[in-house]
């Protein structure tokens, strides 16, 4: 356990001042709390007359009053210390986990796209939420349960042996039995809790899948089958939960049984020792009634930490597992670390693009691009077409340095893009995708997302150029209207906002990835006009399946078998009667 707890040291080192305060307050709180039974026992002895000097009643009253006042004072100090200890312990855990959560989100923000593509999004969400919460729970348990429990055991042992070493030895020998019993029960129930957690994940995943795709479930009339499967998984979870709870429910009864046996043994042994106190005085083990009362209190307090430590062991182990997952993530090299090594300056007026013998595959054994070469001149509009899976989107991924080619080069303005920082490369491009990305915020905030600090006049001008100002002005609060992914805007209106967003950025080069493929003919006409404004005098790359939208392009590149199979204008490619001709005629004839 101590080796495992050392894993929390780097986290807590940042808050070492607060940690020191927590330790000090824990010492004050636990120490004063465990001093009270000693003075309570002395007060009882004085009240019974066991230590009254013969004929000196005033001394009797003075001593009794002193013990009472000491108990009251220690109670007040212990109460204040406990409150401060709890407050600072929570503060340490909250601040430590806030730092971890910030680091996790920052790392996820700058990790290479390859990592994001190859990981479950739910798993990454879990890292930023569930795992960080598990760490906070573990840190809280370390301070509130583990630290308090360890200090309680140390102080209790010290005070017990100070009062009576023989009875202290009896308590010390018997009490740890509760820990071993709790440990045995915990080990047995761990398997059931693991099964329960697995089934909970299965149920959550099934529910999320059905909720996200509820239209398909309803359309295919699969509601009854989905309900039946849900009930089956839920019944499985019910059984696993029953086993886990039944197994773990033995912890408290079994440990309390041992505690009661210890309590009975201390009480019985104490009575015997009081009766034979004169004989035990020779070995320094005589016992008074007040001392026995003190020991009975300590017997209860000494057993409690073992129960606490065994109960939080699972939480700490769970927190350490989450911490290791987080540390694995934070140890990954992100794009900022790689870009820091790149010093090539990036001119802001770059407008040409050239792919030179580019080879690439997402997997080592895969080749999506096989020596592809393509030049895009400044201000030209080049469309990229081809069958599904030919590598059209891969070209965009390489162009924006989401991935880097295995061999070959991508030149921007004659400069190798692999020598440029990714942030600078992406700043040269504006991008309009098929899937519009609208986040929860106002219309103005959505349009100005790519340009921090943009004025309202700039936002209005960009919306006007995109043709979005008409429907924006009809919204209840115009540019201050709150919107979101499901805020009631049509796909065409969302796409117009996306185009306005790019117009506000005013980039040199534009990427249009299926920007009109999901629109109706009326909306497509509006978007096409907005795109014409957007791509005017800008280097533009268009990816499209609907070939009618690209017939006016300066050049059309047909990607075939990982290379450019055909290249030319619409008229030239139609005249060749090759693959493009067959593709076009299959759509419109």
Strand fraction equals 5-15%
Q: What is the average of the pLDDT values?
A: 79
Count the E strands: 12
Shape: elongated
Structure classification: alpha/beta
Question: How is the main sheet built?
Answer: 6 strands, mixed
Unreliable spans are none
Distance between the termini: 74 Å
Please give the count of helices: 23
Radius of gyration: 37 Å
Strand order of the largest sheet: 6-9-10-3-11-12
The helix fraction, in percent, is: 55-70%
Keywords:
alpha/beta; four-stranded antiparallel beta sheet
Describe this structure in words.
This protein has 589 residues and is α/β, with parallel strands linked by helices. It is built from 23 helices and twelve strands. A six-stranded mixed beta sheet has the order 6-9-10-3-11-12, sandwiched between helices. A hairpin with a 2-residue loop joins strand 4 (407-412) and strand 5 (415-416). The model has no long low-confidence stretch (mean pLDDT 79).
Briefly say what this structure is:
The protein has 589 residues and is α/β, with parallel strands linked by helices. It has helices at 2-5, 9-13, 16-47, 57-110, 113-117, 121-163, 165-174, 177-212, 214-219, 223-248, 251-275, 277-280, 289-330, 335-339, 392-399, 422-427, 443-447, 456-466, 469-473, 491-505, 521-535, 570-576, 579-588; strands at residues 353-360, 369-376, 381-385, 407-412, 415-416, 429-433, 441-442, 482-483, 509-513, 539-543, 555-560, 563-568.
SSE layout:
Elements: H1 2-5, H2 9-13, H3 16-47, H4 57-110, H5 113-117, H6 121-163, H7 165-174, H8 177-212, H9 214-219, H10 223-248, H11 251-275, H12 277-280, H13 289-330, H14 335-339, E1 353-360, E2 369-376, E3 381-385, H15 392-399, E4 407-412, E5 415-416, H16 422-427, E6 429-433, E7 441-442, H17 443-447, H18 456-466, H19 469-473, E8 482-483, H20 491-505, E9 509-513, H21 521-535, E10 539-543, E11 555-560, E12 563-568, H22 570-576, H23 579-588
Helix pairs in contact: 3-4, 3-6, 3-13, 4-6, 6-7, 6-13, 7-11, 8-10, 8-11, 8-13, 11-13, 18-20, 20-21
């Amino acid at each position: 356990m101590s080796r495992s707890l050392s894993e929390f040291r780097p986290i807590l080192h940042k808050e070492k001042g607060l940690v020191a305060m927590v330790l000090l307050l824990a010492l004050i709180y636990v120490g004063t709390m465990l001093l009270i039974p000693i003075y309570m026992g002395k007060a009882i002895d004085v009240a019974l007359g066991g230590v009254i000097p013969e004929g000196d009643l005033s001394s009797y009253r003075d001593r009794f009053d002193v013990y009472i006042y000491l108990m009251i004072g220690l109670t007040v100090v212990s109460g204040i210390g406990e409150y401060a200890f709890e407050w600072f312990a929570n503060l340490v855990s909250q601040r430590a986990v806030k730092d971890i959560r910030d680091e996790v989100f920052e790392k996820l923000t700058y990790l290479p796209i390859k990592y994001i593509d190859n990981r479950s999004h739910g798993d990454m969400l879990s890292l930023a939420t569930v795992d960080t919460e598990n760490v906070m729970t573990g840190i809280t348990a370390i301070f509130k349960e583990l630290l308090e429990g360890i200090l309680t055991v140390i102080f209790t042992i010290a005070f017990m042996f100070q009062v009576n070493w023989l009875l202290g030895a009896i308590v010390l020998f018997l009490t740890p039995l509760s820990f071993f019993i709790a440990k045995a029960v915990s080990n047995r129930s761990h398997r059931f809790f693991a099964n329960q957690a697995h089934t909970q994940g299965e149920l959550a995943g099934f529910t999320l899948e059905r909720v996200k795709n509820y239209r398909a479930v309803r359309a295919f009339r699969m509601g009854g089958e989905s309900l039946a499967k849900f009930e089956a998984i839920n019944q499985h979870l019910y059984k696993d939960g029953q086993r886990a709870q039944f197994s773990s429910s033995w912890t408290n009864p079994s440990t309390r049984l041992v505690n009661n046996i210890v309590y009975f043994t201390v009480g019985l042994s104490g009575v015997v020792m009081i009766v034979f106190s004169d004989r035990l005085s020779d070995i320094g083990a005589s016992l008074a009634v007040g001392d026995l009362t003190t020991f009975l209190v300590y017997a209860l307090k000494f057993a409690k930490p073992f129960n606490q430590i065994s109960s939080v062991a699972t939480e700490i182990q769970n927190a350490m597992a989450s911490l290791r997952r987080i540390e694995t993530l934070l140890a990954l090299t992100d794009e900022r670390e790689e870009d820091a090594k790149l010093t090539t300056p990036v001119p802001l007026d770059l407008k040409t693009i050239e792919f030179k013998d580019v080879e690439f595959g997402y997997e080592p054994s895969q080749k999506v691009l096989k020596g592809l070469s393509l030049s895009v001149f400044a201000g030209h509009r080049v469309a990229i077409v081809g069958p599904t899976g030919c590598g059209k989107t891969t070209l965009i991924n390489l162009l924006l340095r989401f991935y880097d080619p295995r061999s070959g080069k991508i030149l921007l303005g004659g400069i190798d893009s692999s020598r440029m920082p990714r942030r600078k490369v992406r700043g040269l491009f504006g991008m309009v995708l098929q899937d519009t990305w609208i986040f929860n915020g106002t219309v103005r905030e959505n349009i100005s997302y790519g340009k921090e600090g943009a004025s309202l006049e700039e936002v209005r001008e960009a919306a006007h150029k995109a043709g979005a100002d008409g429907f924006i002005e009809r919204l209840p609060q115009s540019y201050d209207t709150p919107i979101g992914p499901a805020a009631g805007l049509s796909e065409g209106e969302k796409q117009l906002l996306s185009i306005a967003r790019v117009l506000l950025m005013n980039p040199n080069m534009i990427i249009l990835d299926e920007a009109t493929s999901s629109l109706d003919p009326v909306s497509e006409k509006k978007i096409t006009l907005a795109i014409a404004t957007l791509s005017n005098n800008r280097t533009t790359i268009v990816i499209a399946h609907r070939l009618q939208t690209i017939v006016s392009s300066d050049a059309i590149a047909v990607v075939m078998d990982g290379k450019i199979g055909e290249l030319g204008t619409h008229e030239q490619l139609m005249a060749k009667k090759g693959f493009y001709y067959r593709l076009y005629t299959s759509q419109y004839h």
